[in-house]
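Journal club side-thread
Mid-discussion, someone asked how the predicted structure for our own chain would compare to the paper's figures. Pasting it here so we can look after the session.
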Amino acid sequence: MSFLQSNGLIRLIAVSACILLFSAAVTVSFEAMNHPRPFFQIPSVLLTGMVGLLVFYASYHAVSGNRVFAVMGWFLCLLVILGLIYLQFLPMEYDTVELLRLKSMSPPIWPYTFVMPLLVFLILETALPSNNSIHSSVMFLVIGLFASILLLFMSTVLISSVANISELIFMPERLFGIITVPLLASFAAIFGLVAVRKGFLLFGVGILFFVGLATELISTWAYSGPYFIETSNRIFYKMFPMLPIVAGTIPGILIATSGLVAIRDSRVATFEHVSTPAHEVELS
C-alpha cells in the first residue's frame, strides 16, 4: 500500500499519538482524584497536553520537509514523558519531604504506554536513512506496533500488580531496572520494524526475532510467580501465570511473527518485481 510508504503514515501515527496524549491527560486528571496529593498531578496534566500539541506541530514540519525539527520535537516529547514517569522510579530512597513531593508529581505509567512506542516509531521512521525501502504490508506494521504496545502496557500492569502486594515497592534499584526492561524491549521491537521498512531486512528481522523469543523465554520463567523478589515463594499471586502470558508470551510471539511477515513481504515483492513485463524485457 503506497500510503505506508508516504507522509500519510507519519500523519496517521502523529495524530494517533496526539489523541492518545490528550486521553492520557484526561486519565491522569481522573486518577488524581484518588491521589493523596491531587494538586501535585496538575503539572503532569499540563505537560502531557503540551506534549500532545508539540507532537502534532512537529508532524506538520515532518511532512513539510523539515525533518530535523520534527525529530527533535518528538524526541523532546519522549524525554518529557519518560521524565514524568521516572520521577516515581528513581533508583534511590525517597526519604525526604522534597523527594516525596517530587514522587507525588509523577503520573501513573499505564496511560503513556500506548503512545511511547508510537513516538519512537515517528522518531526512527523520520531519522533513519533509507536503503532501498522494502514494501511492507499493513499486516506487518499493525502486528509489530500492536505487539510493542501490548508488551509495554501489560508488563507495567504485571509489575504494578506485584509491587502493590510485595516488598518490591521498597526496592527502588530493582524496581527501576524491572520497569526499564520492558521499555527497552518495546523500543527495540519498534527499531526492528523501522529497520525492515528502511531496507535493512536481515538486521531488522534479526532484532524482531531476538526481542520476540527473549520476551517469550523471560515470560515463561515468571509463570510460577515473580522470582525477581525474595518473598515470591511465600505469597500466592492469583494473576499468575495468565498475566505473564498476556504480558510476555503473546507479545513475544507477535513480535517474532512480524519478522516472519517481513520475510514473506520481501519474497512477494521480489516475485512481483521479477514477474513484471519490464523486467522480462530486460532479461530477454
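Post-session note: The two ends are 30 Å apart (CA to CA).
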